[in-house]
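Intended use. Records like the one below are meant for learning the mapping from a protein sequence to its folded structure. Do not use them to infer anything beyond what is encoded.
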Amino acid sequence: MANQQHLDLLLQGPNIWNEWRKNYRRIQADFTGADLELKFLRGVNLSRADLSRAHLQQADFKDANLVKANLSGVDFKGADLRGADLTGANLTGANLTGANLRWANLSGVNLSEANLHRARLIETNLSGAKLIKANLTGAYLNRANLTGANLTGADLKWTYLTRATLTRANLSGVDFKGADLRGADLYQVNLSDAHLSHTYLIRADLRGADLTRADISGADLSCAILSNADLSEANLKGCFIYAISAWDVCLEKTNQIGLIITKEGEPTITVDNLEVAQFIYLLLNNKEVRNILDAITSKVVLILGRFTCERKAVLDALRDELSKLNYIPVLFDFEKPVNRDITETVTTLAHLARFIIVDLTDPSSAPHEVASIIPQCIVPVQPLLLQDETQPRYEYVMFHDLRTRYHWVLPTYQYQDISSLLASLTENIIEPAEQKAQELAQR
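Structure written out for the chain above:
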């Protein structure tokens, strides 16, 4: 319940109120639920009023004038501030949990260390605002204007920022885990050391953004624009990068393992280089570009298999080792159902490859696709098979026939575990494949 004396003083205007505050600074003003008693608080002029540490829970300040007001430490939990003008106000340490600030003007406000958990800031103007170390978890910032705002060290986990404007904002060290940034304008923002793992950045504009040391692992960057962005030492592991635009990107010491270049519903194709990813996808979808490869010595190694938990560890280790040896490994997963001509896709990748590695350990490792590719593509094929003394494995009969008919199919290499496979990789896989590639080139 609001304090009636405090309400009467407040409604006499900011001058009288501020004079009273000077004399009774230790008293905490209480306007809790003021909207329930005095609806005419709506639109009230409280410009430059000192309401610091006041209790304003559930209060109705819709369309109120709070320009340059001192609202530090105020409890605005659940308050209605729709359309209110808070330009230049001081809201440091304020509690705005669940408050409705839709259409409000918070340009140049200081919200450092404020609590905005699940606050509604839809279409709110926060340009030039200070939100240093603010709690914005679960807040709604759809279409909000955060141009030039400073959010250093803020917590934006699970925040909704669809189509928000963050041009030239400082987002250094911000935690965006699980946030929705679809269609957001992040032009020239500072995202250094930010946490963007598993965020939605679909169609986001990140041109010229500083993403140094940012953790973007598992994020969906489909159709995003990253041209001229600095991704030095960033973590892009497992990102979805279908139809991404990434011209002149700085990728020094960037973790680019397992970038997924296909869209949802298609077979998963991963590569380990952002720029190569664009090239591979372009080749898969543009026949004219493929002809350029005739004059290029390829370093691509196509790895075919199943991405089950057991087999993926082997394929990942194989990929990492090939990368160290200056190859460009491309993994193709046959596990998921497909809705396009899978044989044509794999054949295109096979034509780009220096050689192909096929994991035959899983009996369902796409024997049909392999049997269709080998006759069409004269590229060395090196089969692998894990041997277990307790449960011997054998390559399927069809593969033996393929080796008999097509001399570019090499003898199956049988290994005991990942360590032995990697230790013998050069001698038993790469060298035989390279030798066969040279033989084929001379014919």
